[in-house]
Amino acid sequence: MKKILLLGIMLFLANAFVFAQSRVITGTITSTEDNLGVPGATVLVKGTTIGTATDIDGKYSISVPAGSNVLVFTFVGLSPQEINIGSKTTIDVALEPDVQALSEFVITSYGDQSRREITGAISAVKGEVFQDLPVQSFDRAMQGRIAGVQVTSSTGQPGGALTVRIRGVGSINAGNDPLYIVDGVQVANGGLSGQGSQNALASINPNDIESIEVLKDAAAAAIYGAQAANGVVLINTKRGKKGKTNVRLSVQEGIVKPLNLYDVMDASQLSAIKRDAYINAGLNPANAAATYGNPEDPNLESYDWLDALYQDGRVSVYDLSVSGGDEKTTFFLSGSYTKQEAQIIQSDYQRATGRLNLTHRPNQKLTVSAALSLAFQNTNGSIDRGNFVNGPFVAGYSARPNVPIYNEDGTFAPYPSNHLFGYNIVQGVNEETRNGKSVQTVSNLSLTYQFAPWISWTSYFGLDFSDNADVNNRPSTIPAFSSYGGASTFTARRKTNFNTNHNFNFNKKFNDVHTVSGILGFEYKVGNEDLQSATGRGFPNPTLIYLQNAATPFAVNSNYTEFKRAGVFGQAKYDYDDRYTADVTLRRDGNSRFGEEYKWGTFGAVSLGWRLSSEAFLQDVTWLDNLRVRASYGITGNSDIDNFASRTLVGSSGQYLGNGGLTITQLGNDLLTWEEAETFNIGVDGTMFNGRIIATVDFWRKNSNQLLLDTPLPVDSGFGEITRNAGEVRNQGIDIDLQTTNVVIGKFQWSTAFNITLLENELLSLYDGLDRVGNDLIVGKPIDFFYTNEYLGVNPANGLAMYDDGSGTGGYTYLTGESTLAYRGSALPSSYGGLSNSFSYGPVSLEVFFQGQFGNLVTNSDLYNLGSWGSGTDNQLVNQANYWKQPGDITTIGMPYEGGQVPGTSNIGTFSTRLLSDGGYVRLKQVTLKYTLGNAAAQKIGMSSATVFVQGMNLATFTKYNGIDPEVNSVGTSTYGSYPNGKQITAGINLNF
Prior knowledge:
mainly beta
């Protein structure tokens, strides 16, 4: 008995001694992103194996033994913290996002890949970078933020399309757009509506996006094989996280203003230049006065057509999301509404979106995920890009300032029939209907079964579906349409893209140093488009616009097109001790677009990586956190051509003896096959000074061969051209991406993100041994360039336009011809990039972001109308008033001459470098100022956080370009009357609950 009592006393004393030597520390771990508790975070006693995990509310409790005084707090995607315990018994920690850690995994359509193991060229931008920007599509949010990716606005129309090029332009006739994949769904980009630019990618709310990954070389993109020649853009939307439910509300309001407007003449100025143009041409100036007014008349009135067309539009953006979940199910639910009025009257854009992302694990083996989205877009568009009289960006400037817009009773005044076809552009914009409505879903369902910790099977199904309805009504109240009683055209489009893939994923580590991973799978895709349209004329009343009210059925059109693609793919990776990495990818694809015997193509890539910072010889370099070199080579494909380019087509040829007739409309080519892009890439990744400097540099070359090229046929064939594989284009360059934390002093922090791409484009070969095709394609030159006359200025002696005579001696001529034409420069930029500086001091933060491109020439076709030296019938720019008047005048504006062609000279409208200018620019793209309410203050009013902000976009542009907007005029299409970008200023608030 005594022994038992003695043993009990000893155990009690031992326990008391242990408790005397240890402490229990409790607390809560939160994230600075949402100020919510972080479930599953790790708390570790430094130097020991003692640790614990936080509960669902982020709370923890841990016993710390004697002699230990530091706790380490970690969670995936958040920066770890080490805290000295001292005498504290409660330690609460707020972990900040770890940008480098967040980028550790790249989510592809076929599984996740560790960024540390990737040996291809991949760039990323996180959703938080562009969250709450008043942009309608994610492609616009990428502009200037990713090295090697050029994003250009094709139009300033709200919700309008953009042009995206990854590492240059590799194809002449086939598509150059990258492959877009949203949560695994292969999305068809481009426009949804024909009544104003409506971007198919705008159906994805940018605030729903978690990250955007861009695969730039063959090693990164080869698993997509036949679709990846132009790069791949992966968009991953937000998912719920287990823990407390988070509610986020964002509201912002603002205005959009015209970025820049031409300064055009008033009635007095125009009448003066027109009088002299008539006199110089030997015509009666009284005829000029009868049309344009008398410059000596003090009562000559001017009418401001631009003021009647342009406006300050309103911008409204509302966004609500709810996310959360438990151990089995997580969810992300969101809804948004956007409305933006344009800088031109009767032009606006509305969008409503809804999204539900679900992930459910019924057991430890099976995971079911779904991403369901629905978007409605409504566009009231304006005609742009074309010398059209009903386009406000042409006719608004060209309209004569001596012609009234309205009658005295407020109705629209008639416009002179000898100019702009008698079209009053203000009346036209107000009364012509150009409306496009679209409903689109980009949704998916996937099932993953985990056979073992190292191997799983995934079946995936994705759908991109859109319905579009367009209406264009031209009422009889507009004189140009009154002769046939007005017209209405209704168009319905339906686009369906379905893709499915089924694959094995495996990842196994052996002996702690050998890691083998890979993918083996099958994929199938089908895409189709159905279009129906009809036009009716002769409506009894302008308010009756539907076709059943038309007196005359005028035109009917319908078509259906479809393509299919199937492929098998495999990828194997090997990593040794996080130092040496090898990657092999192989894919074989078949596509219905190609010739019968050439439908299938094989694509692949190999890459190697070496992490030098893990080697013993660099272990003493304390300032170097990470250093890795990468090299890759691979071949990817391009099939972006018409669905029936390889087929002989038959079409209707009207009637013959009362019966429908058929004729061959296109010659087929059974030998047509894939265009290929052969890519080489050498890259270096480095992180220094505890993450304060992060740099990536890639040297690359992409040769596009077997181009899908439209080549001419002999005249006696009866056909103009045929699509064949011929020619080669080379793009090569350097991508540089640099992120730095420049200053951290107390509460003040300053960081910088900079990227730039330097590139060259060259046509290496054509077909049949040719070294040029007219003045459009020349071997040794870029594939988009200007071959024209060199304008030398105005001769002070006689006021005539001078051009280089082509002799090479510096001589000039007044008369251009084939001998005076020469290569003048590239339309493709030689560099582009962006620079962002972020400053923060306590709760206040400021971001200033610049974006630009350099080294390209741009056409300004508006000068053909507005800068014609007073020779035409249109209004002129104010600078045209400084025209040549007498011998000895030094000026850039020559002698006005009615009709534009002085005998013995070329017409002033002749295309030359007079209509070209430097297209380079630097734009202050974004400035955002934020104030974030402190956690304690926010919680007092029932919120976890609150942020107020004001921001501006497109605030200033620095350029030598002589037009309105060098960006929208650099996309290679018509520059007549292009729709410029607007300047936006908004203010808003974000609330988290």
